[in-house]
Amino acid sequence: MGQTIPGIDEEFDRRVEQLGFEVVELEWAGSRARPILRLRVDRPDSEPGRGVTVDDCARISRELEPWLDGLGELSERYTLEVSSPGIERPLLRRRDFVRFRGFRASFRFDGPPEGFSSSRMEGTVEDVEEGPSPASFRVRIGLGSGEELQVDSDRIVRAHLLWDWEDGDD
Q: Is the pTM of this model over 0.70?
């Protein structure tokens, strides 16, 4: 579907925040007649592996459904799927990169950064700085080789945290 209702993303942010959570990602799928809204939420203070529970997702869904049911622009045959972002949480907004400074992440860029042969790499989110425009920011990434890479946010196609599966079983 890919098509949203004007202003609904901001309203999701506001309503989810009032419940003590944050929207990580809102994905629109399905068709206009049967839209699927995939809402990934997190706790603002969570750590990877210790975040949103199934009960939290059910509560958020119950709280949002009456509002969604009343939206005339949304087909009454919609499906709302609320889930946690998972331990390999996507990094989409500036606040995500700021919050997870010091964490390892996987990055996919719109093309190889200058001096590199691949558009995919792993590294540590070192810092987040102002970008060339008010809507963008620059991410400084520490690479395993000791090098650092600075990349504008508009070049990042996808980024997500990396979970150390060997050390994650505390």
A: yes
